[in-house]
Amino acid sequence: MKILGIESSADETAAAVVEDGHRLLSSEVASSLDLHQKYGGIVPEIAARSHIESILPTIEKALEMAGTGWENIDAIAVTRGPGLLGSLLIGLMTARTLSIAKNKPLYGINHVEAHVYANFITDTKLPGYDLNNEAPSFPFLALIVSGGHTQLVLFRGPADYELLGQTVDDAVGEAFDKVAKVIGLPYPGGVSIEKIAPSGDPNFLELPRARMNSAYDFSFSGPKTAVLRAAQKMTGKDFTFPSTGLAALLTDTQRADIAASFQKSAVETLADAAQEAVSRTKPTCLVIAGGVAASRKLREVLSERLDVPLLSPDIKLCTDNAAMIAALGYFKSQAAEADDPYTLTVEPGLSM
Ligand code: KG4
Ligand code: ZN
């Protein structure tokens, strides 16, 4: 069964074809990232406009790369939330229209849940993919870490999961992005911080760790503010000095030390919670997903610390893509009725 996935929840317009939930036939991603970079984050209006321009060419490219015409597509899966309202609408309305015009069943997909299903993609003929040898088996634990989400979820079965814990304030990727902005590094912050962290001292700053009610909950706003205060102190300014003026006053060494210290603190916070959850819930494996799962440091620390296998998607399937949407679409198609293409709506605040 070949499913066309469509994703447009943030700044990436993506389309992909996946067969039987695990064979990747194509994955196309058009990003409006460069248009947002000078603002230090995604500008919703710019994102929505660029989805309109890219969505049909991206779908066409995905079909072409998969070597298939519409006649071989069995269903369409599309992100319905969470995400930016304007961005979601472009993908969803396109998918609804195509579902009606091409007479294909339509499945609305939860973007966060789909990140986890990137781990079910185990096979492709496309060059340059480093895929899991086997799909995760249930029950497994998922650490979902992106620009919008930081969650620990226990998956007992395909549609049976329990949210164990989540961030009480900033998502970890969002904290990476904000710290990067303070020290003058480009968006997306996690990538920029990863580049310069190896030349810094990870023990340079001792960042605070919030005491949480649950061992599975996270907080990233404290360490993020501590970075701001430290940068003000390092440049001889007080707490009233605007964060936007700091980057120009920091030296390269100071920037690298801050980057390394924040990366260490964020990765250890995630690893501590994951380790605790693994020891209490005894899953078959830990699966990581979402943009921050691209972090090599996170992968390294988790594999060192855990006594169950760590599964992670190819880096290209960690950040937003449509292959994960198509993969989850397959499992949905096996378990549930298709959605109504005349009434399916977006849900910007959708949660797990
Ligand atoms: O999943 P994603 O592409 O979009 C959302 O759904 O949020 O995640 C984007 C986030 C950004 O905050 C970015 O800074 C972070 O993923 N990110 C990383 C790395 N690559 C991307 N964070 C840490 N280390 C990385 N290598
Ligand atoms: Zn995402």
Report on this model:
This protein has 352 residues and is an alpha/beta fold. 40% of the residues lie in helices and 18% in strands. It contains eleven helices and eleven strands. The protein has helices spanning 33-36, 44-65, 85-102, 111-117, 172-182, 189-196, 221-234, 252-281, 296-305, 315-318, 323-335, and strands at residues 2-7, 12-19, 23-31, 75-81, 106-110, 123-124, 140-145, 150-157, 160-166, 286-289, 310-311. A hairpin with a 3-residue loop joins strand 2 and strand 3 (23-31). Helix 5 packs antiparallel against helix 8 (252-281), helix 6 (189-196) crosses helix 8 (252-281) and helix 8 packs parallel to helix 9. The longest helix is centred in the C-terminal third of the chain and has 30 residues, at 252-281. The mean pLDDT is 95.
Q: Could you outline the blueprint of secondary structure elements for this entry?
A:
Elements: E1 2-7, E2 12-19, E3 23-31, H1 33-36, H2 44-65, E4 75-81, H3 85-102, E5 106-110, H4 111-117, E6 123-124, E7 140-145, E8 150-157, E9 160-166, H5 172-182, H6 189-196, H7 221-234, H8 252-281, E10 286-289, H9 296-305, E11 310-311, H10 315-318, H11 323-335
Parallel strand pairs: 1-4, 3-6, 4-5, 7-10, 10-11
Antiparallel strand pairs: 1-2, 2-3, 7-8, 8-9
Helix pairs in contact: 2-3, 4-11, 5-6, 5-7, 5-8, 6-8, 7-8, 8-9
The structure holds 5'-O-[(R)-(carboxyoxy)(hydroxy)phosphoryl]adenosine (KG4) and zinc ion.
5'-O-[(R)-(carboxyoxy)(hydroxy)phosphoryl]adenosine binds next to helix 5 and helix 6.
